[in-house]
Write a structure and sequence with these properties.
Elements: H1 3-29, H2 36-44, H3 48-78, H4 84-105, H5 114-140
Keywords: Membrane, Transmembrane, Transmembrane helix
Transmembrane segments: 7-29, 49-77, 84-104, 116-135
Length: 145
Amino acid sequence: MNLKLKSVILGSGLALIVFQVAIHLLGYLSAVALPISIAEWAVENSAQIFVLFVWDLLVVQLFGIGLLAAFAIYLLLRYTSLSWLYVGGAFIVTETIISNYASWTSLSWQLFSTTNLIMLAPHLIVISVCALTAARWSNEKQVAV
């Protein structure tokens, strides 16, 4: 089998596994409350959307799925001779599709308001940065098999 095709298939399969595990982690981490002092500051300065965006990015998404994705991709690529770019790309595309499938198939156009699109961005940012960083870093430390 072609190395690029094998990389895409394993990257997509890994995304499916990580997504199933991350559903539970994201549920627990989304219950972590924003500190009241930060919330009050955001209300006073009309920065609620920005503060929620940063909180979702750095707390919920990074710890909920970002580190898990990075660790899984790192382990996969560390002990195989797959192409890091194809594994990382397939992981990002597959994970983005399955995580947003319900939003995209809904008949409600309310999901496509500016606020909702801004709140979908942290997931894509964290997945992209963590997946490609781990993939590239593991490529430098691959073990010859």
